[in-house]
Structures are given as structure tokens and as C-alpha cells.
């Protein structure tokens, strides 16, 4: 009995292992972290990190664990951390030191810069205690090594020169070349591991299986996935036994989508490109880039609901570097959370960081003071609604929001409206200045239905012919509108929280009185405009 009890405890509580599948990741929401840059150990000097120096700033797995409240309070249910494997330890290169963790030497060893094996286990355990998942970034395609390192491979996982493809520069557009030639350049060569070699294949499979089991990893983000032949992935991910999402850089939707199949999913670069075309300010204001991409999804991607939706990452300029108007980012972000796919937010996006591409997009987060910014509050609301909708997926009496497909309701020069499940998202690229623009969206909802925008907690009433009308006299804010009754027990916009439930994240506690007040104002406004014979109603 005793033995049984402790076995039960160790299985269920102490090292809760999720080894999560694609289906289990579908409803998650991911916060992406560069380990070196997210948080410092207590007592560190916080003034010494300049991204331009391209060197270590001191973040660790422990300092992530100690600051998980910040992530969980925003409603995220998973983190993705930069690679954990041993990196090149030689002389400083023209591109600095491997503070980012992507310059692998020995994948099978942990990177002691970021902590010990116990520290990584403690991070994993703490995440699982909170009901969160751990995704780890892995680099399989290549190692990093200067010519002198390659003459002596003793500190590498693959010690035999035959386990690497011979050097050749990549000829872009030639698939074989992209897969077998070397990424990097003369300053920082990234020797290409021979992933066709049976010994390499089996060593990688044994390694990933053990890594996932030892640290109870729930999912993998695969670096440079398109630089490895696609036949490699099913067995690698099969050995890992967890969800795999790959980086297939570029907006060639045929190429990107061809990796969903070999891998469970891919990062949604095509939609990233479309979002920049539609929402960047100043920019092309091309909303059809989004609608066309959504249309192409239907035939190309096996499962758009698993795509990793993002606006920023460690390779791209921050959104705010390209588009300084904050409403531009909030609207694009709302799209990522309320359409098909798994939302991913890169650390610092919520703090309005605005660095250019590598290395300026790897700012230290501590300089922000982890402030509760407007972006932070919008993310919290989006996560809270999404988590609430996801949680209802198992309830057969409710709409299965998670498995429903986002559809376009309306597009115009100022933006678009989409609908996924019960949620209507009306998004715009008008930006912050007040605009004398109103938009009428035809929905399947019936006349007089009360609806709530979860971002402002304002109420809307559906007009004749299912019309939902919004105006932008306070600037181009995103609107996420749901039937008000749907928010029951969500804790959002003054709705009660179901007894006994503990919704994650910070709740958007709109005061009921003020939302009633604003709803009557809107009713008056709609009536008034209606009297004038406007097209609003
Ligand atoms: C290779 O490097 C290791 C240290 O990384 C060293 O101990 C060893 O002597 C070197 N071997 C040769 C042949 O230079
Ligand atoms: C493509 O790249 C491979 C590997 O470098 C090379 O052998 C082949 O000749 C290239 N094909 C073309 C059409 O250039
Ligand atoms: C908008 O994007 C679509 C889809 O990518 C493209 O076909 C179209 O040419 C673009 N329009 C403009 C004005 O750039
Ligand atoms: C973009 O980033 C660069 C380098 O970090 C910076 O100098 C520039 O001011 C940024 N632009 C904006 C609009 O933030
Ligand atoms: C952030 O600020 C909002 C609005 O004042 C508040 O509702 C929320 O609780 C705050 N969140 C945190 C984590 O302090
Ligand atoms: C707003 O636009 C309408 C229709 O285009 C126009 O009649 C009205 O005068 C405008 N109002 C203001 C304050 O610019
Ligand atoms: C009613 O809605 C449909 C789209 O659902 C639209 O095509 C039609 O023009 C609308 N009719 C009126 C009178 O607004
Ligand atoms: C999910 O919904 C169930 C039933 O309404 C509730 O008991 C549970 O607390 C909810 N979980 C979360 C994380 O909101």
C-alpha cells in the first residue's frame, strides 16, 4: 500500500510528465524566451547588458523558474526556451559569443552556462506544477565550429568527420544544396551534420528520447527544419514522443506547408508575412494578403489549427521596429490569438521592445521592470478568453471553438473581420489617431443579441440582418466581440467566475456598472445614428 501510494505520488505529483501530443498543444499559448535575456539571478547587476555586445548577460534556467508568475499572470500556458545543449566554447567570434544557445557543439551535454541538470529539471517541474508545458528549442541540422575545431572533434557529439557533409556554400533555391551545404559564413561556420548517415540518425534518436524523458519536455521547436531532408523528421519526432513544431523560414507557402506532415506543425511564416503587409504602419495596408493566405491554408496545410502564430522572434526585427503605432501590433496580435493556430509571443513584445533584427532583438527583459503595460493587459485578456474557450472544448453543449475554422466575414481598406466559433474579431490598420470611420460587419447573429467586446468590455447590440457596427472615433482598436451570455463564468468583463474554478491569468475585471453605462451609451448612439438614417444599423 505504501509503495503503491508513493508510486502514485511520484507519478502524479512529483514529476508530472505530460509528453504532450499535437492535440494537447492545440489549445496552448506560448511565451518564447531567450534564456540568457529573460531574467537575472537575484542580486545581479542589472545595468550591464547591451545587446550590441553579443555576449552573455547572465540569465539562467533558475531565473526563469523564479519569474514564472510574470508569464503565467499573462495567461500563457507554455514556454519555449532557447536551446539547452552545450555550445561552442572557443574564442569570441566576429558575431560575439553564443549567449543565444544556437551554436551547438555537443547536443548530448547540457549548456553549463544556463545551469545544471537539476536546475533544468526544477524548471520543468515548476512548470508542470502550474499546469504549464515546456517546449525546448533543438538544433539538429548543424553544429558551430571554426576550421580549427573541426580538426579536433573531441568536444563534439559527432566526432568523426564523415558525420558531417563536406563544406559547400548554400545555393538558395536548390533543395539538395539547402539541405546538405553549410549555413553560416566564414566568420561563423555552421558545419552541416550528415543526417543521412545511419549512425547519426540513430544517435540523434537516442539522444532526443533521453532528453525528453530526463527533463519531462512537452514539445520541441526544431531549428532550421527545412535544412534537413524531410524524411528525417517523422522518426526523430517519433523517438521524442512529443509535439514537434519546425522553423521553415520564408513565405513560400508550398515549401512551409510541405513540412506539416513530416513534423506536427511549423511556425506560421506565411501568415507573419501577410500580417506585416496588412497591419504595418506605415505600410501597404494590404488586408487581402491575410484573406488570400487564409484561403490558401485550406488546401495546403494539413491542420492550420496547429500552426505557430507569431509577430516576433529571435531572427526578426521587433514588430515595433517596423511599425511604431502600438495599435498596429495589438490588432495583428489579436488576429494571432483569435484565428486558427497556437499563439506565440516573443519575450519583450509585451514591453514594447523595438530593436531591429539580430542582435538588437535580444534585449534584456529586466530593464523593463516587468511592468504591467497596455500590451501586457491586452495579451492577458486574449489569453484569458482563449483559455476559457479552449476549456469549453470538452463540453459538447458548447461550440468547439478550438477545432472550428476561422472564416472571413468582411474586408475593406481599413481591415478585416473574421469569425472563429462564436468569436467575431474586427481588426483594423487605422492606427491610434481617432478616425471618422465606421464599419458594418454582417454576422450570423440575430437581431438584438447583446454582445461584448472583451478588450474594452463595451457592449454591442446586433442590428437587423446580423449587422455588428463599430466605429473608430477613439482610434483603431481591435475588437473581440462575443455573445455576452458566453462570458458567463469566465470572470471577464464583470462576469462571475464559476464556483470552484481557478481560471489562469489575470482577469479583466470590468466593472459591471461602467459596462452597463457604456452599453446604454452605445444603444443611444446607435439609435441616434439610426434616426439619422445612417448605414450603421
Ligand atoms: C583535442 O582537444 C582536446 C580538448 O578539447 C584535447 O584534450 C586533445 O588533446 C586534442 N587532441 C588533439 C589530437 O589535438
Ligand atoms: C544542387 O546542389 C547540389 C549539392 O550542392 C549539387 O550537387 C547540384 O549540382 C545542384 N543542382 C543544380 C541544378 O545546380
Ligand atoms: C496584396 O496581397 C496579395 C496577396 O499576397 C497580392 O496578390 C496583392 O498583389 C497585394 N496587393 C498589393 C496592392 O500589394
Ligand atoms: C530599430 O532598431 C534600431 C536598432 O535597434 C534602432 O536604432 C531604431 O531606432 C529602431 N527603430 C524604431 C522605429 O524603433
Ligand atoms: C495590470 O493592470 C490591470 C489594469 O489596471 C489590472 O487589472 C491587472 O490586475 C494588472 N495585472 C497585474 C499582473 O498586476
Ligand atoms: C464623418 O464622415 C461622414 C461620412 O463620410 C461625414 O458626413 C461627416 O461629416 C464626418 N464627420 C466629421 C466630424 O468629420
Ligand atoms: C444582409 O447581409 C448580407 C451578408 O450576410 C449582405 O450581403 C446584404 O447586403 C445585407 N442586406 C442588407 C439590406 O443590408
Ligand atoms: C474549465 O472548466 C471547468 C468546468 O466549467 C472548470 O471546473 C475548470 O475550473 C475550468 N478550468 C480552467 C482552467 O478554467
From TrEMBL:
Indicate the enzyme's highest-level EC class: hydrolase
Glycosyl hydrolase family 13 catalytic domain location:
32-386
Q: Where is the active site?
A: 223, 247
EC code(s) of this entry: 3.2.1.1
Q: Which Pfam families match?
A: A_amylase_dom_C, Alpha-amylase
Q: Which PANTHER family match?
A: ALPHA-AMYLASE 1, ALPHA-AMYLASE FAMILY MEMBER
Question: This protein is called what?
Answer: alpha-amylase
Q: Which organism is it from?
A: Cerrena zonata
